[in-house]
Structures are given as structure tokens and as C-alpha cells.
Amino acid sequence: MSVDLRQISLDVIRAGQADSGAYVASPTFSQYGYSWLRDGSWIAQAMDTVGEHDSATAFHRWAGRTLLHYADQIEALLVKMQQGEIPAETDYLPTRFTVNGRLGRDEWPDFQLDGYGAWLWTLVQHCRQVTPALWPEVRPAVALLVRYIAALWPLPNYDCWEEYRDRVHTATLAALYGGLRAVRDYDPALVPDELPEALRQYVLAQGLHPSGGLSKFIPPDAAPGRAVDASLLWAAVPYGLVAIDDPIFRVTLAQIERELHVPGGGVYRYRDDTYFGGGEWPLLAAWQGRVLVKLGRLDEARRLRDWVAAQATPAGHLPEQVDHHLLDGSYYEGWVEKWGTSACPLLWSHAMYLILDAAIQEKEGER
Ligand code: BGC
After folding, report:
1. 8 Å CB contact between 87 and 95
2. pLDDT value, residue 131
């Protein structure tokens, strides 16, 4: 099963990459015919993981080009910010672009920053390990983006699930920290010395839940259903805002395992999730597996990989979420009527499967 799914995942991703280099989020779902920086970055990372470097290079090149296309818009936004003006929603960079790098035609919860952090982090890995020659080409886009992030990071913006516009999100700050830190280590001149650490200190000072773990929101939300979010896994892996063995992360992981991981099953985004009734997300199960590989909990990681694989359709397609144990099934039909059934195949799900599978194989090889 896993051998086939690996091949099918590659095929799905290849088929979903446009000539421009952009990856479509899902080729069949009504709303996902766009390229998200967040999804795309992890898809490119997966392609690097399995040795499909040209595909990853093409994506990063597309992303760099696309950002530079919006340079005037970014500069205008930065001037507004310096003058103390409140930007309009359309002044920010979007979260998704058409595969040709242009803005979508329909309205979308666009002001999201985490995808830009993901791009910086994955781009640096790609340039460091695979294609150093790409760096000079993308460097102007990176420099621009670092200035954009430096000005905007403290502002509330939509989270990685495109919700809660009025809140600050720990996982978003973790992605920005990881991206900035990676650039700073690779090309120090591009990132002010104190910037990544300022983000980290802000999270440690404001983003801890009374339990001692990281909080979904900053400031923390008292409602129990909103205390923790599976995207907080990113804070340790890969972004390193906290070390994987830091007590803060241990508490966070324990909470995710207790409240969001269905025993023998997948992983919810957060307890109050109602999107398509709030199902388990294969890509989050894979992410948790990846964390467990790093912790040496290989058997559990394998079980998560097998669970992800078992969610594939007979054609081998992985969905965005599955509906075996919905958190609130009363929301399910409404979403299906609005947009059709949950996105499938979702390229990001396939990407995370490949990443987990490779991590497990690598660990097995070390033994
Ligand atoms: C998810 C995002 C994702 C987008 C495209 C949304 O429903 O919340 O995290 O980037 O779909 O896959």
C-alpha cells in the first residue's frame, strides 16, 4: 500500500504543478484551484525529500517571481504603516495566487502571514541543500518579504486555517520565526539581528497557556475548545521556536495527543472546528507522526502513517479531511451544499504523507 501511495502521491503532485511552477491546492475542489504559499511550500519540501528537485526549484522560482510582481504594492503598504495609517484589507499580500501569480477574482480571507514564513523556511532548505544557485535569483524577493514581515508580524491576521482575523496566532508566529531565522542563518545581511528573537520572546511571554503549553491564540483564550491547535506542532518541528524536548513543547504535544488525536485515528485541527463538521486531517496526522519520529516513537509514527494511507480513496487520493468522527456533524451538509465534498486529492496531504514516509525510512536506515 505505502509503495503505491508514494507513487500516486508523486503523480498527483506532478499533475498539479502548472507550467509556471505553482502547485494547485486541489485540482478538483471548487475553491482550491489556486496556489497557496503554505501548501506549496510543503509540497515543494516533499518533492525535495523524494529527490524531485526540479519540481521544487520551479515552485520556489515561481514564488519569488510572484512576490516581486507585487513589489510596488508592498512598498506602498510599508509607507502607509510608517505614516501610522491603517492599511485596507486589499493592501496586504494575499494568501493564494492563481497559478500565474495573479490575484484571485473572488473574495478570500487573505491577510495571512504564516505561508510566507513557510516559504522562507522551505526555500532556505532548498537553496542550502540542493540549489545554492537559486539564492541570488530569489534574494530580492526574500529581502522584500523580510521587510514586509518585520512591519506586520505583531498584527492580528487570519490563522493557517483562514479563521480568526482579529487574533494573533502562535503557529503563525512560529512559522515567521522559523522563516526569518533560516534566512538569518543563511544570509545574515537580510534579517535584522534582533528580529527573530523578538518574535520568539513575544511568544514565550504572551503565548503560554496556564497549563504551561503553547496557546492557539495570543493572548490565550479561556474557552477550552480553543486552547490548543494541532498547528502548534510546527513550533518545534520544523520551526524550532521551542526545542522538541522543551517542557513547553512536551506539554503542548501531550495536549494535542489528548485532545486532538483520535485513538487509532487521525488528528483534528482544534476542538471547536466546524469546517465540514470538523473531521480528522491526514496532513496533521502525518505532522504528528513526523514529530514522533524525531522523538524516537517510531511505532506510533508508523501507525499514523498507516492511518493516513488507509484514508486514500481506491484511486489512491488523499483528502483534506475525513468524516469518521466529526466534532460537530450538524455542520457537514451545509459545507457540502456550499462547496461540494471535502477536497480530494489535496496535494498538501500527499506531500505530508511523503515527508512522514521518508522520515520513517530514514530513521529505520539509522538502526
Ligand atoms: C485550509 C488552509 C489551506 C487551504 C488550501 C484551507 O481550508 O484551512 O490551511 O492552505 O485550505 O489547501
Report:
1. no
2. 97
